Amino acid sequence: MLTILTFFPVLGALILLALKPSKELLIKQLAVGFSIVTFVLSLVVLRRFEPAISGLQIIDRIPWIPSWGIEYHMGVDGLSILMILLTTFISMLAIASSWTAITMQVKQYYIFMLLLEAGMLGVFLAQDLFLFYIFWEFTLIPMYFLIGIWGGKNRIYASIKFFLYTMAGSLLMLLAILYMGITNETFSLPDLITGRAAFAAAQNWLFIGFAIAFAIKVPVFPFHSWLPDAHTEAPTAGSIILAGVLLKMGTYGFIRFNLPLFPEAAYHFAPAIAVLAIIGIIYGAIVSFAQKDVKKLVAYSSISHLGFVMLGIFALNEAGLQGAILQGVNHGLSTGALFFLVGVIYEQRHTRLMSDFGGLWKAMPVFAVLSLIVTLSSMGLPGLNGFVGEFTILLGSMGSTALGARPWIYTAFATTGVILAAVYLLWMYQNVFMGPLDKEENKKLRDMNGGELAIMLSFLLFIFWIGLAPSAYFLLMDSTVAKLVADIMAAGALMMP
Q: How far apart are CA 446 and CA 195, in angstroms?
């Protein structure tokens, strides 16, 4: 089932490859169709998923290169089920949002989008480190071309910077994977977790190898400088997927690999990573406020929001980890929706500078109302999705034993990020939507059409659902997170004086 889910978009890409480039309408219809069916397949996986089981489920496992201890091993558990659903949902909306935005090399564009979706699904499902690394690196290729061909005027610079940054970080992870695989004669993640005593002496170095690769992807301060360029230059759908899913590969990597493989090291490095997370929260918010380009503001806000996710992960308790996983989903929804809204306005005005707008509320009332809801969601307003994740993360950090004797200090500094988010997001909203409608070009703008409205309502459905009734989402990860935390705490207890 997981193999079908992962490689179904590849089938779509192969069918598009066989079509003539002139059949643009058919190519678009097939691409959207394949992304919808992939989303339905992920719902089938959800239907078969048993939240009460803490281990891997729906497993596909066969020997691949037996002489090297490499297997084709796929599985899903409470750590990855929400990431799978987020990937198929965001990919479906991103592909649909490209309908009118992409006018050149349409066939190649949709092939790359479908291949990217397959790569991301593989990252979240692979349970063999060799297989995981192949999917991890593969996602760089479609994203590199999506930015480099269909991006903005500095697209070549942004795409090369994105590729080199993430590729360089991954090489350290590859060395760590090779070391563990050779030490244990297997690359299977469950087997490596069971036999982690074999590489316990080197676990601090191995932890750092994985952590740098994942920190660049998140990105954690100070590894963040590739992100604003990639976001700003990427096409709208590229930004939606980059914010919605690709950045979560980094936070997922910390939870899936760093915590269970190197629990003592995780305990050891938790305060330092929490400090970097808080610097990211505050730095991202302050730099967002200085932006004149709306898309760049949303890009820098991602650094701030993902700082919360990192703080939750390294609180190393159930509340923090569950909040981090859910906030990853929330960020994908809220920031993905914001990038989509920026794309809607950019298609009409071909500018993203706040100074070129003002008073849009009068010209585009529906667009303005939906933008306000998403802005409030990104701010963490109670009743919307962002609040649930941030509250749970702050709850986790406040009660964390991994953050030393005074964890409330971390929580206090992190809370300033919530206040700063309200400042820069409301400032952006005021500049774009409020005030007089005094520019002629803005008076001619049309409001949202049916397709754009359908995409936005899809985002809003989950923004309100998670905000008002999050228990179903917590239930999916409850038992897996509890088992992981118990394991980390046992290792942490060994380190206590």
A: 61
pLDDT tens for 202-251 read: 888 999 999 999 998 888 888 878 888 888 888 888 888 888 888 889 99
**How do beta strands 70-76 and 57-65 pair?**
antiparallel
Q: Please, which contacts does 284-289 make with residues 24 or more away whose CB atoms are closer than 8 Å?
A: 284/221, 284/224, 284/417, 285/417, 285/420, 285/421, 285/423, 285/424, 286/420, 288/424, 289/420, 289/423, 289/424, 289/427
Retrieve residue 428's tokens: 């952006």
- Report whether 369 contacts 307 (CB < 8 A): no
Which residues are registered as beta bridge partners of 73?
Answer: 61
**pLDDT-flagged residues of the chain (< 50):** 496-497
Q: What is the pLDDT of residue 181?
A: 87
Residue labelled with tokens 């990919």: 91
Contacts of 138 (CB under 8 A, 6+ apart): 115, 119, 122
| In the block, residue with structure tokens 């917590």 | 474
**277 neighbors 224 (Cβ within 8 angstroms):** no
Report the pLDDT value the prediction gives residue 497, as an integer from 0 to 100: 43
Residue 408 confidence (pLDDT): 86
**Please, are residues 285 and 353 in contact by the beta-carbon 8 Å criterion?**
no
Q: Distance between CA atoms of 145 and 138, rounded to whole angstroms?
A: 12
Q: Note whether 2 and 74 are within 8 A (CB).
A: yes
Closest C-alpha to 277, from 416, 481, 473? 416
First to last CA, the chain: 47
Structure tokens at 99: 């309908």
For 60, phi then psi, to 5°, come to: -110, 115
167 phi and psi, to 5 degrees? -65, -45
b/e code 327-355 from CB counts within 10 Å (16+ = b): bbbbbbbbbbbbbbbbbbbbeebeebebe
pLDDT in the model for residue 121: 93
What is the per-residue pLDDT for 56?
86
| 32 token code pair | 């959207």
Token pair of 106, please? 């349409």
Q: Which string of b and e fits 447-483 if b means at least 16 CB within 10 Å?
A: ebeeebeebbebbbebbeebbeebeebbebbbbbbeb
- What angle (nearest 5°) sits at the alpha carbon of residue 255, between those of residues 249 and 259? 140
